[in-house]
Design brief:
- The complex is a heterotetramer of chains A (395), B (344), C (177) and D (227).
- Chain A has helices at 8-26, 75-80, 84-91, 100-114, 120-148, 153-173, 195-218, 221-227, 235-240, 246-249, 257-260, 283-307, 359-364, 367-370, 376-386, 390-394, and strands spanning 35-39, 51-57, 60-67, 182-183, 186-187, 326-334, 337-345, 353-357.
- Chain A contains 16 helices and eight strands.
- Chain A is mainly alpha-helical.
- In chain A, a hairpin with a 7-residue loop joins strand 7 (337-345) and strand 8.
- In chain B, helix 6 runs antiparallel to helix 9 (205-218) and helix 6 packs parallel to helix 13.
- Chain B is globular, with a radius of gyration of 20 Å.
- Chain D has a single domain (21-226), classed as 2-Layer Sandwich (Beta Polymerase, domain 2).
- In chain D, the strands form two sheets. Chain D has a five-stranded mixed β-sheet. A two-stranded parallel sheet of chain D has the order 6-7.
- Classes of the chains: A mainly alpha (395), B mainly alpha (344), C alpha+beta (177), D alpha/beta (227).
- At the A-D interface, helix 2, helix 9, strand 6, strand 7 and strand 8 of A face strand 3 and helix 3 of D.
Chain lengths: 395, 344, 177, 227
C-alpha cells in the first residue's frame, strides 16, 4: 500500500473548484453554436456498444445522453421460458468478464425459495469462484482505464495476468468466460487435483500485477492529473442514483453487500478482510479502490483456499427442479457493483418473472448528471472509471 | 554526399542522387524504428513477441503492411472537400522531406548546406500543421475536426519551446548552420577541458530535455497524442483516411520522428561525429550516416519508451505545460547560456 | 509518492518488463524472447486446454438410446435427434428379442450452441462428453451443424476425467472407450 | 421420462412463526407516515419486507421512506400477472402442439405474489437503507384501464432509466417523467415485450426439437420400453 490518501483539505478544495468550474462552464459567456458529437456505438473507447450523444461547446460538454440497447438481449423475457437450470447459462452472459458472479445471486435466490442450502464445501468453492471472477473482471477494468487515458501498456499487463486467473476458472468449471458451474443446491463438480496450489500461484501473479500497475499507472503524475478532481460523485447523489460497488465506495460510502448483507450460501464471514473506501469520489478514487479490492480479493481467495472443508458439493435436490411459489430477492456484491435477482415463482419449472438488477445499469444512469460541463477527454476517463460492461447495462 | 565520389556527375544525375538519397534518409530510419521499436520493443514491454510471420522474426511485416495499404480502397467521405482531402497527407509528408534537406550526414555529405539551416528546419517543420488542419477540415467529420484543431493548437504551442530550446545551442555554437554546429561540438571544449569535444547535451542539458519534450509533442506521440487520441477521437484528423493516404500519414508520423531525432542528434549529440576522431577525415563521409543513425536510434528509443509508458495529457494540461513550464524554463536557459557565453 | 517521481518509476516498470521478456534467463544469458513472452505462436505451437475445458461435444454413439433428454433440456434447441425402434438379439440365449432404440440422426448446431453443457450433464447413459478440442471452425455458419459421425470422431479427443482435490467426496467417473 | 426420483424432504417442522422487531418497527413507522396508503404488507422474518401501497400514495411512500433513511435506490420495475396465453412455450412434460389442452376455455385464475395484488399490472421497486442494512420492496397496483403512475424521479433520481425501461417493456405511463422515450428498443418498436401476451418469436417460429420421439416399431403400439 504505497499510495496514500491525500489530505482531505486539498481534495475538498479540488472538489469545490471543479464544481465552480462546472457551473461556470455551463453558463458560458460567449454563446457559440453547439456541436453534437456522437461517441459510439462503434467507438474504440466504449467497451461494447454504448453510444453517447454529447452536445459540445468547443470541447466542453453541455449535455450528454447515453443511448443503449444495441446489445439488449431480453434476458428477463427469455428467462421466463426457460427452466431454472437453463437460466444460469443466460445470466452468465450479462457481465461477461466476471461471469461466475452473475450466476451466484440467481442461484441463491432460487435456493432461498426452495429453502435448500448448499453444503459447506460448495459454499466455499462458490465464494472462491465469485471472488476470482471479481479479480478477473476488475484487473481488466484497471488495464482498460489505461487505454482510456492513452497508455498502451497497462491493458496488456492486465490481459497477461488475468489469463492466470481465467485458466484456474477454466480448470475447475470448464469455461473461461461462461462457467455455468453453479447449481441450485451446490456446484456442478468438485475441484480437480492440484487446483488449490495453482490458484495460490495465480493469486501471487495478481498481486505482482497490482504492484506493477500501481507504479506504472497510479503513481504516474499524468494519470493523476487526468483523474484527480474529475468526475466527482457526491455521496447523496450516488445513493439516489443507486450506484453501487466501487463507484459508491469511491465516494466514501462504507457499504459492501459482502460484509453488510451477506446472503446465506457465501462464506465471506469466515475470512479476515477489509472494505476499502476513498473519501474523494473522483475518478482516481474509484480506480484506487478497485486496485485495493483486487488485492483484498486475492487475500480472501488465499484464506478460503486454506479453509475449504471436505464433504459433498451438492445438497439433496430433486432431479427436476420445481421452485415453490413465492418471491425472493437476493443481491450480491459483484465485480461491477450490487447485482440482484428478483425471482417470482409460481411453482413451475420456470420462473414467472425475473427482474435482473444489474449494477452497471444504475452506475451508468448517473452519466448525464456527471458529464455536464466536463471536457471531451474527461468523458472517456469518467466512463472508464465508472467501469461498466455493456452486457451488464443492456442485459 | 555527391562530392565523396569525386567524379563529375551531370546535374540531372546529381538531382537523381539527391532525390534517392533523400528518400533513403527519410524512409530507412522510419522503417527501422517502426520495426525495432513500435513492433518489437513495444511487444517485449508487453510480454509478447509482436509480428513473427512475415520474414525472419517478422522483419518484413512493414512491407506487408505497406502492401496491404496499397490494396485498400482509397475512400473519400461523401461530404469531404475532395481536393484538400487528397492533398493533405502530401503536405504533411512534404514537411518531412523538406526537413531532411538541411541535415548533415558527414563533412561533405549533405543535401543543402544552408547558412540558416536550423532556422529553415524549424520553419518547414511547421508546414505539417497546415497539412493536419487540411485533413481535419476536409474530412467532414467531427472527430477529424476536433483532432485537427487540437493538433493545430498543440503544434503551434510546442513550436515555441522547440525554437527556444534550439536558441541555447545556437548561442553556444554561434551559428545557424547545422554543419557548423556539428563542427562546433567537435572542436569545442567544455570549460577548458578538451578532448571529447563539447556535445551540447552536456552544457545544454535543459535545452535537450525541453527539445525532447517539445519534439514528442510535435510528433503527437504519447503522452502528447491528444490530436489522435484513439480512445476518444477514434484517430483524430486521420479518422476518415484509408489505404494509401492513411499510410502516408503513418509514414509521415514516424519519418518525422526519425528526422526530428536526426536534428536533435545534430544539435545536441554531435551529429555524425564521434569523440576522439578528426571531424575532417574523409572517413566520416562513409561512417557519418551510420553514426548519425546510431544516435537517431538512441533518441527515438527515448521517444518510444515514453510512448509505451505514459498516459496522455489532456488538451488544457499540455497547453499549460508548454506555456507555463517549458517556455519560461527555456527562456531561463537562454539567459543562462547567454551569460555563460559572455563570461567564458 | 516518495522521492522518485512516479513518471520515472513507470519508465522503470516498462524497462523491467521488456528486459524480463528479452532475457528470461537473466541478463547475462543469450536473449530468447520467445521464451520470455507469455504468448504462444498459435498455428505453430498449441496450448493444451484444461481437461475440463468445454471445447466441443463428443458423442459415444453406442451409448445413446435416443431418449431425447438432451434435446429437451437444451436451452437453445440446437440438438436434433431422430431414432427408430428395432429388434435386437436377446441378451440370453432363448430369450425374447429385445426392442432397442436405434439412433438415426444426432445433430448439434454449434452455431446455436451456447456451450453450457446441460446436455452432457443430463445424459443418463454416458453418451455425451466434453472434448477440449477447439479447432472446428467453418467458413460458413451452416456448416457448423455437425452430425453424429463427426461428433463421434471427437470421442477420441475426450480426455480422462481428472482426479479430485483432497477433501472431495466425488468419485472419478470413467470415459467409455 | 418421469424421473422424479430422489425428492428432497425438507424438514418443515421447525418453521415457527418468527418475529422480527426491526422490520416490524420499520413497517410501523412507515404506516405512521403514509397511513391509508398502505394496502397490504408482508414480512418474512429476518429477511425482507413487502409493502403494497395504493397508486396515489406511491410518491408519498417514496418520500417517507427516503426520510426514514432508505436513501439508496435499488431498482424499479413492473410485473404482469396475467398468465401467459402461450403457456410456457416449452414444456418437456406436455407437448402443447400435438396434444392441445382440452380444457382450453377453462379460465385460468390470475395469481399474484407476495403482498397480494388486485390488477394485472403491478409496479414494484426496492430501496435500501444502507446504514442499518434494511431493504423494502414496494408494490403498487395499476388499474387495467389506466396504466399510469406518478414518477419517482423527484424522490430518487436513479428511477429515471428504470421508469423508461418499465414504460417501454410494459407500456406503463409514468406521469411527470421528463423523457419517457424508449431506452432499449428502437424508436418505432411496437408492442411491450415484457407483457405476457407478447409472443416470444424465437420460440414460435421453430418447432421444439424435443417434440419428436423415437418412431415405434411398425405395427406395434408404443408400449414397448427400451432395455
Amino acid at each position: 500500500m504505497t499510495t496514500q490518501i491525500p489530505d482531505l483539505s486539498e481534495q475538498e478544495q479540488l472538489r469545490y473548484i471543479s464544481q465552480q468550474a462546472a457551473d461556470a462552464r455551463v453558463n458560458v459567456e460567449i454563446e457559440t453554436e453547439g456541436m453534437t458529437l456522437n461517441l459510439g456505438p462503434q467507438h474504440p473507447a466504449t467497451h461494447g456498444t454504448l453510444r453517447i450523444i454529447a452536445k459540445l461547446d468547443g470541447e466542453q460538454v453541455v449535455a450528454a445522453e447515453p443511448v443503449m440497447g444495441y446489445m439488449h438481449r431480453g434476458y428477463e423475457k427469455l428467462a421466463e421460458v426457460r427452466t431454472y437450470p437453463q437460466v444460469t447459462t443466460l445470466v452468465n452472459r450479462i457481465d461477461w468478464v466476471g461471469s461466475f458472479a452473475n450466476e451466484t445471486p440467481f442461484i441463491l435466490a432460487a435456493e432461498k425459495l426452495m429453502e435448500v442450502e448448499a453444503p459447506p464445501r460448495a459454499q466455499y468453492i462458490r465464494t472462491i469462484l465469485h471472488e476470482m471472477s471479481r479479480i478477473a473482471n476488475v484487473i481488466l477494468g484497471i488495464g482498460d482505464m489505461g487505454v482510456q487515458v492513452g497508455a498502451v501498456t497497462p491493458i496488456f499487463f492486465a490481459f497477461r495476468d488475468r489469463e492466470y486467473v481465467l485458466n484456474q476458472i477454466e480448470a475447475v468449471t470448464g469455461g473461461r468466460f461462461h462457467p455455468n458451474f453453479d447449481r441450485i443446491g451446490g456446484l456442478k463438480d468438485d475441484l480437480p487435483a492440484g487446483w488449490i496450489q495453482n490458484t495460490k500461484n495465480a493469486m501471487e501473479k495478481v498481486r505482482d500485477f497490482c504492484d506493477q500497475i500501481e507504479e506504472l499507472m497510479y503513481g504516474n503524475e499524468i494519470f493523476q492529473a487526468r483523474t484527480r478532481g474529475i468526475g466527482i460523485i457526491p455521496k447523496d447523489v450516488g445513493l439516489a442514483y443507486g450506484l453501487s460497488g466501487v463507484n459508491i465506495r469511491g465516494s466514501g460510502v462504507d457499504w459492501d453487500v459482502r460484509r453488510d448483507n451477506m446472503s446465506p450460501g457465501l462464506v465471506y464471514d469466515q475470512v479476515d478482510w477489509k472494505v476499502w473506501t476513498h473519501p474523494d469520489g473522483d475518478s482516481y478514487s474509484r480506480m484506487w479502490v478497485r486496485l485495493q479490492e483486487v488485492r483484498e480479493g486475492t487475500k480472501i481467495v488465499d484464506q478460503l483456499l486454506d479453509q475449504i472443508p471436505s464433504g459433498p458439493i451438492m445438497a439433496k435436490v430433486p432431479r427436476i427442479i420445481k421452485v415453490p411459489a413465492g418471491e425472493a430477492y437476493v443481491e450480491t456484491e459483484n465485480p461491477l457493483g450490487v447485482m440482484g435477482y428478483y425471482v417470482v415463482s409460481k411453482g413451475d419449472l420456470n420462473p414467472y418473472r425475473v427482474k435482473i438488477r444489474s449494477a452497471s445499469f444504475n452506475n451508468v444512469s448517473i452519466t448525464p448528471w456527471l458529464l455536464k460541463g466536463v471536457y471531451v477527454p474527461d468523458i472517456i476517463t469518467i466512463l472508464g472509471s465508472l467501469y461498466f460492461i455493456l452486457g451488464d447495462i443492456d442485459r | 554526399m555527391i562530392s565523396i565520389l569525386s567524379v563529375e556527375i551531370p546535374y540531372w544525375g546529381q538531382t537523381t542522387f539527391r532525390v534517392l538519397g533523400g528518400l533513403a534518409a527519410v524512409l530507412l530510419p522510419a522503417g527501422a524504428l517502426v520495426y525495432i521499436y513500435l513492433f518489437k520493443l513495444m511487444s517485449f514491454v508487453q510480454s509478447r513477441l509482436g509480428p513473427m510471420e512475415a520474414g525472419p522474426a517478422g522483419s518484413l511485416q512493414l512491407l506487408a503492411e505497406v502492401g496491404k495499404a496499397f490494396q485498400k480502397e482509397d475512400i473519400f467521405p461523401r461530404k469531404a472537400d475532395k481536393l484538400v482531402f487528397a492533398a493533405a497527407p502530401f503536405v504533411v509528408l512534404m514537411s518531412t522531406f523538406l526537413l531532411i534537406l538541411v541535415v548533415p550526414f558527414g563533412p561533405d555529405a549533405w543535401f543543402v548546406n544552408l547558412d540558416t539551416g536550423i532556422f529553415f528546419a524549424l520553419a518547414v517543420s511547421s508546414v505539417s500543421v497546415i497539412g493536419i488542419l487540411m485533413a481535419g477540415w476536409a474530412s467532414a467529420s467531427k472527430y477529424s475536426l476536433l483532432g485537427g484543431l487540437r493538433a493545430a493548437g498543440q503544434l503551434i504551442a510546442y513550436e515555441l519551446p522547440l525554437v527556444l530550446a534550439v536558441m541555447g545551442v545556437v548561442i553556444q555554437a554561434g551559428t545557424l548552420n547545422m554543419q557548423e554546429i556539428v563542427y562546433a561540438q567537435a572542436e569545442g571544449e567544455i570549460f577548458g577541458i578538451s578532448g571529447i569535444g563539447n556535445p551540447f547535451i552536456i552544457t545544454q542539458f535543459i535545452g535537450f530535455a525541453i527539445f525532447l519534450i517539445a519534439m514528442q509533442a510535435e510528433l503527437t506521440q504519447p503522452p502528447f497524442d491528444m490530436p489522435v487520441a484513439e480512445s476518444e477521437l477514434v484517430s483524430g484528423y486521420m479518422t476518415e483516411y484509408s489505404g494509401i493516404r492513411f499510410l502516408l500519414f503513418f509514414i509521415g508520423e514516424f519519418a518525422t520522428a526519425g528526422v526530428f531525432s536526426m536534428i536533435a542528434s545534430v544539435l545536441f549529440l554531435g551529429g555524425w561525429w564521434v569523440p576522439g576522431l578528426d571531424p575532417d577525415s574523409n572517413l566520416f563521409n562513409i561512417l557519418g550516416p551510420a553514426v548519425l543513425f546510431g544516435k537517431v536510434m538512441l533518441v527515438t528509443f527515448l521517444i518510444f519508451w515514453f510512448r509505451f509508458t505514459y498516459p496522455r495529457f489532456r488538451e488544457d494540461q499540455l497547453q499549460k505545460l508548454a506555456w507555463k513550464v517549458l517556455i519560461p524554463l527555456s527562456l531561463v536557459n537562454i539567459v543562462a547560456t547567454g551569460i555563460l557565453k559572455v563570461v567564458f | 509518492m516518495g522521492l522518485v517521481p512516479g513518471m520515472i518509476k513507470g519508465l522503470g516498470v516498462t524497462a523491467k518488463s521488456a528486459i524480463e521478456t528479452i532475457f528470461p534467463d537473466g541478463p547475462l544469458k543469450p536473449p530468447s524472447p520467445s521464451k520470455g513472452a507469455v504468448t504462444i505462436q498459435y498455428p505453430h505451437e498449441k496450448e493444451a486446454p484444461a481437461p475440463r475445458a468445454r471445447g466441443v461435444i463428443a458423442l459415444q454413439e453406442d451409448n445413446c438410446t435416443a431418449c431425447m433428454l438432451c434435446a429437451r433440456e437444451c436451452p437453445d434447441w440446437c440438438i436434433y435427434i431422430e431414432g427408430h425402434k428395432e429388434k435386437a438379439p436377446p441378451r440370453r440365449a432363448g430369450g425374447k428379442p429385445r426392442q432397442k432404440n436405434k439412433l438415426d440422426r444426432f445433430d448439434i448446431d454449434f452455431a446455436l450452441c451456447m456451450y453450457c453443457g446441460i446436455c452432457v450433464e443430463v445424459c443418463p447413459f454416458d453418451a455425451l462428453f466434453w472434448s477440449p478440442e477447439y479447432e472446428f471452425s467453418e467458413p460458413r455458419i451452416a456448416d457448423l451443424l455437425h452430425d453424429k459421425s463427426r461428433l463421434a470422431e471427437w470421442m477420441e479427443t475426450v480426455p480422462d476425467f481428472e482426479s479430485y482435490e483432497s477433501g472431495s467426496e466425488a468419485k472419478v467417473r470413467k470415459v467409455p472407450r | 421420462m418421469s424421473d422424479e426420483t430422489a425428492v428432497d424432504t425438507v424438514d418443515e417442522a421447525d418453521v415457527v412463526a418468527e418475529t422480527d422487531e426491526v422490520r416490524e418497527a420499520t413497517l410501523a413507522s412507515l404506516t405512521d407516515e403514509v397511513g391509508d396508503g398502505i394496502v397490504e404488507s408482508h414480512i418474512r422474518p429476518n429477511d425482507d419486507i413487502w409493502v403494497r401501497v395504493s397508486r396515489d400514495a406511491w410518491v408519498d411512500t417514496g418520500m417517507a421512506l427516503k426520510s426514514m433513511g432508505f436513501g439508496y435506490f435499488s431498482f424499479l420495475s413492473a410485473i404482469d400477472w396475467m398468465p401467459s396465453p402461450f403457456g410456457r412455450d416449452m414444456d418437456s412434460q406436455v407437448d402443447l402442439t400435438l396434444n392441445p389442452p382440452e380444457d382450453e376455455d377453462d379460465d385460468v385464475v390470475m395469481e399474484t405474489g407476495v403482498a397480494g395484488g388486485d390488477t394485472r399490472f403491478q409496479v414494484f421497486a426496492r430501496v435500501n437503507d444502507i446504514v442499518n442494512n434494511r431493504a423494502i420492496t414496494l408494490k403498487a397496483d395499476l388499474p387495467d384501464d389506466d396504466l399510469s403512475i406518478a414518477t419517482w424521479i423527484p424522490v430518487y433520481s436513479g428511477a429515471n432509466w428504470h421508469e423508461r425501461e418499465a414504460a417501454e417493456m410494459f407500456g406503463i405511463d409514468f406521469v411527470g417523467h421528463p423523457n419517457l422515450r424508449n431506452l432499449y428498443l428502437p424508436g418505432a418498436f411496437e408492442g411491450n415485450p415484457m407483457r405476457k401476451d407478447f409472443a416470444l418469436l424465437s420460440r414460435r417460429i421453430k418447432p421444439w426439437p424435443g417434440i419428436v420421439d423415437v418412431e415405434p416399431m411398425p405395427g406395434e403400439d408404443e408400449e414397448g420400453e427400451d432395455a
